Amino acid sequence: MSDRYTDDDIVMSLDEVSVHFEKEQGLVDSLFNDPDRVQAVDDISIDIEENDVLALVGESGCGKTTLGKTIIGVQRPTEGNVTYRGQDVWDAKDGVGDVDIPYGDIRKALQIIHQDPGAALNPNRKVLTSLEAPIERWKPEMSTEDRRARIFALLKRVGMEPPEDYAHRFPHQLSGGEQQRVALVRALLMNPDVILADEAVSALDVSLRVETMDLLLELQEQFNTSFVFISHTLSNARYLAEKANGRIGIMYLGELVEIGPPEEVLGDPKHPYSKVLRWATADLDPSSQEMVDPPVRSIDIPDPVNPPSGCRFHTRCPEAREVCTTAAPELGDDESTPGAHCAACHRTDPNHEYWESQLLEGVHDSDAVTTGEADD
Ligand code: SF4
After folding, report:
1. Which of 24, 169, 242, 339 could cross-link with 2 by S-S, CB 3.0 to 4.6 Å?
2. What is the mean pLDDT of residues 342-347?
């Protein structure tokens, strides 16, 4: 466990949270069949501490954005509880029970930066007007002078100088990187506890990406803010998580399949799916250059409406055995603890019946030779 995780100050806590959506159907289907339900997030427990960095990675449609939005209280869970400093977020919103922290305070404390900052900024409003609006709403008592002083100080802090000049521009007069900085300032104005950065650097040029990630980390440190960073790129996730001494969480079909410090998850991945992601990122796995085939049996991702039984990865896993088709592996008791390294795979348990089970049809024979004992 990392030295950083000695403090028990948990900001957000998700307890056995699931988010299911009803999929749109045709008229005939909707009249005669039960609605299809997409299991976007399934039974996830996780804690976010103060000044924490969690990078969530996975293929498109794996549920990472839905999980991120659930962590910051934007997405209501279908099952389970989401708490902010011990207060149930959705009870606060609905006014259920004794509410210790008003929902408005929770919303202020949890902010989001989107992938496309241009779309998030009103094209007809100057930067200053866009930045003043949230302060006027949440801190109406603040004077115009103080409001502007705070905005200019933050614009300066993110490198937009002179701030008065940038404040009076319209979004189309800013570059993509500058728009993202304005979005970051808008999130920081509320002194948030947690910021969800949803693919926040994906749309930027490669040269700007590192610069923006460094800025995020500097601000995270300076403002004592936690970041949940969503990325489909493992190298970006590693960069942020390593520099911040944070964690990487790997998602597959709505489930968190591996989580832990980046050097452990990437240096010694325990879940076969994490190995696939690492293989697909050449700079993380030099041996991938020599491997002709990816360490996966099928490139088709199953339908999230009807995920495979047992371990959801069994239809693609090169290590799958019969038991994997019926028994769902669990992430482990430490899954929500920052700093713990856990994987939801039967192979992590040297005593699991997996080791006596037959290889699945289609799994290459050479795997049988390598599967005599657990990876770790
Ligand atoms: S539980 Fe079985 S199918 Fe799932 S990842 Fe582990 S070995 Fe593969």
Report:
1. 339
2. 96
